[in-house]
Amino acid sequence: MPLVSVIIPVKNGMPQFKRVVDMLTRQVLDAPFEVIVIDSGSSDSSKEIIPQDDPRFRLVEIESSSFGHGRTRNLGVEKSRGEFCAFLTHDAAPVDEFWLSELIKPLRDDPNVAGVFGRHIAYEDASPFTRWELETHFAGLQAWPKVRISDAREYVRNQGIRQVYHFYSDNSSCMRKSVWEKHPYPDVDFAEDQVWAKTIVEA
């Protein structure tokens, strides 16, 4: 049984999705993992580049009309077999072969951790502004490596604290399946990850 299920919603993800798949095939982990690709009507070659000879990869196809950011990720978790469920977007390639092992480390080390997310690194051809924006944002979050409400009154009155506590990004994230069973993703038009994080810290 896999320890981790990596879930990726895809629609017309090329060419970056090939980079994502290539990096996933190179992951080094001391336990089995699986990759569940949920395609919602791609008309490019996204489905064709999923390795046919790698049993870790599974393809699930849905109608484009049934896609929802929270709904589709919930479907992926329902079909998963891992204790941990990791998420990538179809254009977010792991930075190296240790992405998955580093992502799940806080979950393995501390049973109180419900979810983990990784920082975003701009691609080589990104604009200087995009690169600066990502570096600045995630540098600021380094001061908050683990968040949990310890002062409910301060949490309620301090919007800045709440913005930090609620930040969570499915570009690169992982959650305990046992937590998802109690708190699945909300079926919302966008920001399902941020809404989920708010639910988790308040729970």
Brief descriptors of the model:
37% helix; 203 residues; alpha/beta; globular; six-stranded mixed beta sheet
Describe the structure.
The chain is of the alpha/beta class. 37% of the residues lie in helices and 16% in strands. It has 8 helices and 6 strands, in the order E-H-E-E-H-E-H-E-H-H-H-E-H-H. The protein has a 6-stranded mixed sheet with strand order 3-2-1-4-6-5, sandwiched between helices. Strand 1, helix 1 and strand 2 form a beta-alpha-beta unit. The mean pLDDT is 97.
Number of helices: 8
The stretches of 5 or more residues where confidence is low (pLDDT under 50) are: none
- List how many beta strands DSSP finds: 6
Helix content: 25-40%
Average pLDDT, rounded to a whole number, is 97
Radius of gyration: 17 Å
For the termini, the CA-CA separation is 29 Å
The helix/strand class is alpha/beta
Proportion of beta-strand residues: 15-25%
Task: Write a brief caption for the model.
This protein is an alpha/beta fold. It is built from eight helices and six strands, in the order βαββαβαβαααβαα.
Task: Write the topology of this structure.
Layout (H helix, E strand, L loop, with lengths): L3 E7 L5 H10 L7 E7 L17 E5 L7 H10 L5 E5 L10 H11 L5 E3 L10 H14 L10 H6 L1 H8 L5 E5 H6 L9 H11 L1
Parallel strand pairs: 1-2, 1-4, 2-3
Antiparallel strand pairs: 4-6, 5-6
